[in-house]
Fold this sequence. Notes:
Blueprint: H1 2-33, H2 36-57, H3 60-70, H4 75-97, H5 101-108, H6 114-139, H7 143-169, H8 177-187, H9 192-218, H10 226-260, H11 263-276, H12 278-296, H13 303-326, H14 329-336, H15 348-370, H16 374-397, H17 404-425, H18 430-434, H19 436-455, H20 459-476, H21 478-485
Amino acid sequence: xxxxxxxxxxxxxxxxxxxxxxxxxxxxxxxxxxxxxxxxxxxxxxxxxxxxxxxxxxxxxxxxxxxxxxxxxxxxxxxxxxxxxxxxxxxxxxxxxxxxxxxxxxxxxxxxxxxxxxxxxxxxxxxxxxxxxxxxxxxxxxxxxxxxxxxxxxxxxxxxxxxxxxxxxxxxxxxxxxxxxxxxxxxxxxxxxxxxxxxxxxxxxxxxxxxxxxxxxxxxxxxxxxxxxxxxxxxxxxxxxxxxxxxxxxxxxxxxxxxxxxxxxxxxxxxxxxxxxxxxxxxxxxxxxxxxxxxxxxxxxxxxxxxxxxxxxxxxxxxxxxxxxxxxxxxxxxxxxxxxxxxxxxxxxxxxxxxxxxxxxxxxxxxxxxxxxxxxxxxxxxxxxxxxxxxxxxxxxxxxxxxxxxxxxxxxxxxxxxxxxxxxxxxxxxxxxxxxxxxxxxxxxxxxxxxxxxxxxxxxxxxxxxxxxxxxxxxxxxxxxxxxxx
Length: 486
């Protein structure tokens, strides 16, 4: 069981890790190529789009996983029904929003660049449609196909960005018209920030083309079940609310800093925030391999044991990841982003730990999803949003306008959500809750290690300290780690 799980997770990790590594390489490229105010616009558009995708996805990915094993429905019936629901939601949204598009563009401050919203409308359309088919690939244990699609998208997007920025830089020196022909077309309707959005749009379209055969082969309107659709919508609505809450927690700070301080400050904040989102990379890799497994094991008598063990190991490796990143932060920050963005470096450890809280929360949230109580997650997520709003309200009314306040808002929001879920799970999973002393000990050791390494300037001593941390963890958790290896 663990062997198969590990193999699938490794394959999924390649498909996720390689594109993400390229994305982090592009952070360096963008921070050297774009001014801080331009980088702010780039992150702002993605922040707005994530809020919309959170609404349109409607929590249907989790719903799809759950309903495949909840009742004895035919798998193709479940897939057809949920795809048709997704298409209806997307159609309704675009029909309504198309009547207000000019007001939306004006309200967000992009009247001079309406093409940004046109491109992002298509990105949102393609990405949302692809969510369920990509989940189908995962559920049918096709990690190679999943990885191949992600890698093709990555290559396409990377090539187009590199090509267009290269043409932009050498526009007056290159005389080869064939080389410049495609660039001239794109450059005729947008600027170099728009090049990034255009490349994403093309990559998303290719993703849609690659998964389209799955939709055409399986989806049939005759297999659409109204009764099943009602159940799915009822189940997914609170999950969707939680997803939107997460999007607000993750993106509201960048949207507000741009509008309440300046694009200049938001550019630096957003670049450092992306470094802090290293932890989300670890969370995503873990989730891709684990989540379908969680749902499949939900009917087993020993399901709780697997959930508890895997969540504990997630925390253990997550803290190791935290130590490796924050313990070498000065080296990583110089490697990834330009010096002019470094004045917001203080938010990185805060964001990384906040993201680890979120990762633990996501693992524990599987429990209430399997128990068919998604409203628990909705209530907790809404409380998290209130905390985020509170910190952002303090930030807006702070006379010094300290941008670190929203970062602490992210930390406190995810930390409080995790605490509430832990209290709710206390009776359901008593064995895991008894491990809380060990977990707190691990948090203390990890944070103490990061504190010492950040105080010390000697690289060799820092490496020795981190090796000592690793040895201590191996000694404390030798039994669990040996069981995992077996």
